[in-house]
Amino acid sequence: MTTVSTASAVDQLSTTTLLRFATAGSVDDGKSTLVGRLLHDSKSVLTDQLEAVEHASRNRGQETPDLALLTDGLRAEREQGITIDVAYRYFATTRRRFILADTPGHVQYTRNMVTGASTAELAVVLVDARNGVVEQTRRHAAVAALLRVPHVVLAVNKMDLVDYAEPVFAKIAREFTAYASELGVPEITAIPISALAGDNVVEPSAHMDWYGGPTVLEHLETVPVAHDLTACHARFPVQYVIRPQSAEHPDYRGYAGQIAAGAFRVGERVTVLPSGRTSTIEAIDALGEAVDIAWAPQSVTLRLADDIDISRGDLIAPAGDAPAPTQDVEATVCHVADQPLSVGQRVLLKHTTRTVKAIVKEIPSRLTLDDLSQHPAPGQLVANDIGRVVVRTSEPLALDAYADSRRTGSFLLIDPADGTTLAAGMAGESFATHGNTSSVADEEGWDF
Fold this sequence. Notes:
The chain is of the alpha+beta class. The longest helix has 18 residues, at 166-183. Strand 20 and strand 21 (373-376) form a beta hairpin. It is globular, with a radius of gyration of 24 Å. It has helices at 6-14, 31-41, 47-59, 69-79, 110-117, 135-146, 166-183, 216-222, and strands at 17-25, 87-92, 96-102, 122-128, 151-157, 188-192, 236-237, 240-242, 254-258, 263-265, 269-273, 277-286, 289-291, 293-295, 299-304, 315-318, 326-335, 341-342, 346-351, 354-368, 373-376, 380-381, 386-397, 410-414, 421-427.
């Protein structure tokens, strides 16, 4: 019998690529069963976990293991009030490593998909073959599009309950593809499956010989992964200023943080935002050693040739490729709080390591998911709404368009009273320019 050493297994995994993907689906579409089947059939379930599922299934009077129980434990914790926004699962095959963000399915948890999909390269949207595309399906597609998830898989589940009929699958695939394409999703792959029976999840289905595409796992293993942050505009949000002022390092002044995108080199000319001051990178310290180049997502300390007033929240960028600071932020947001977001509301805006005061100047529209129409001037956004906002900040921010950088084009709106996250925002150029840019003042001094 051939055995593989632990060291060999580690070496093998270190050479495989990593895919981050999120799953989403309406209640009772079979998402838990799909995730359980994917883990089970890819041999990613430990023996004791499987035995526990088999035991629980027998106690329920089921003859076969209910693979949904592999994920239902965390769902039960969430129902009991434990704060778990997204359940993460880690597994691997010989071809690729995976981080799966298992997001809740009910409509009031749509906001949780924003968390799970914000770093995903692929989203699996589940649809019940008997029900077809429903409002929650469209909502999940809209969130994936807004978050610029490059690959979307439409998993048409429960094909066994519609006699594996090709016309049923084809109709759902056409409707979803048309909708998602209109949203701007760049790549859509439709796969007919039965998570309960295992059809086209890991192994090809014997009941759907009319389908010649990949299984879910085959697609996950082969889809191109393009998350090379080093190819993006170089951005370095300052997290901490290091000044030991010790006998050994009397003049040391370093700016520590994680490179959000791109690469930085010793000798490179850089601009510090929002001040606009320029300097040259004199040295880069990584893990206690001096290096000539560093790239995303490394955590490093930059040292500049000039003494510049730099603090947490400032952004360092190449002198010839720096974003223009602005106090008027136009963006699309997904509202995630129970309390509404209203015009005139005072908020905090957190962008990378910088948090500033802001006021919601305008909510131009709210997206209607049924027909993708814009409901003009809704006045406020409520939980799970997707809408456009115009926010005026107290200090200039160096934002990129979200389409150019998911890291430095995103932000959060926060309730200044209790720190509750109100909305997740994606800055962009999809809005018309609004002429009214006069400052907003109130009795508490929020005058921008």
